[in-house]
């Protein structure tokens, strides 16, 4: 199959899978889940089949059609998009395994709807990853927002629906009010919205316009959760844990930081943005978000809310690394998307497993839980150490490259931010690990329980293994992203 047809297949497979899941769910739960796993596996195989061509320098592309003169729906696979698509498609398999254990173990309602919209969200993520221009990116960005709303509002009670409306309202308002005007401005100024190595805006805008347009993009892409456009993310924690994993690790937030990185590299151009003083604010906005979100996480007593604010901080690592505008930092930004995905999905899987097995959600309830749930808490420990950046975990690799890029640029704000946030990460994760393993459980507190269902434990074991494995086996990802800065 040609590269262009593989792109189309990557978009169509999860959408057809969604239809199959909806139909299968009318007959048999096992059949529905089998269709989910088959679809996820087929998508991963299809996406990963593009990797050799991209590593060899190929850039398969296809144009689906022109909407109006000069604006078309088009797709092109480049290194950053390849990394995002490979990550999202691969983790969908693991998330599906986990979802089977979680949804059954927690006796969730409307499971067919859950799996159906999950598949549609993955189709949208593939469209974002392979978008060839700003219009296509915006189109699938909106589809991703709309398809995840039923997932966030899954429980259906008043509190959940209210929080889901915050989720939808913030993301739609920012995208329509800021992201879309930025796209229109770009098309008018540059005459095109195509993603082009080196950018398309040099000589087209200058002075304060550069910083203003960058601001429209950064805050218009609300999924990146750069403060103050972050409120939707804690609100979305009302969703079931597999959805939280989708939001934080597989698709949604990764779509946000991916889009910002792609726009900086292929629309503005690294060299052009580095020469524009009005764009310097992005570094400080990202640094502020990292520190502020880490401080808020430090005050949380609910495990999922702590992980939500941790995600806000970790996302801005990617934004800050991109804003450093140095090759090593750009590589670090891309690699941190992978490192954060592996570590954070492990943490959310662990949080969900704890809830299914014990119904515990608060930090004070986790005393001694490592002895009841050793597999789950070992995985949690690995994920937490990766968020801190301790070797041998994936988080150490990405932080190494970001820090190297900061030193390359003599950017002391970034250096201080990385060091300070690492201390804060340790301050809110290490006590959880300590209480889980070294503080005895209070007698008579909580129900007697063991591990979560086997499928959930299997999934979090896989992601914890990936978190360590990426520390040792990251050459392919690094080679892919070196093409981003040295085409």
Automatic annotation (TrEMBL):
It is found in: Cell membrane; Membrane. Keywords: Cell membrane, Membrane, Transmembrane, Transmembrane helix. Residues 131-423 form the NADH:quinone oxidoreductase/Mrp antiporter transmembrane domain. The chain crosses the membrane at residues 6-27, 34-51, 82-102, 114-132, 138-154, 166-190, 210-233, 245-269, 281-299, 306-325, 331-357, 378-402, 414-437, 457-478. The keyword Hydrolase does not apply. InterPro entries: CPA3_Na-H_Antiporter_D, ND/Mrp_TM. One of its GO terms (cellular component) is plasma membrane. It is a multi-pass membrane protein. Its main location: membrane. Belongs to the CPA3 antiporters (TC 2.A.63) subunit D family. This is Monovalent cation/H+ antiporter subunit D family protein. It comes from Aliikangiella marina.
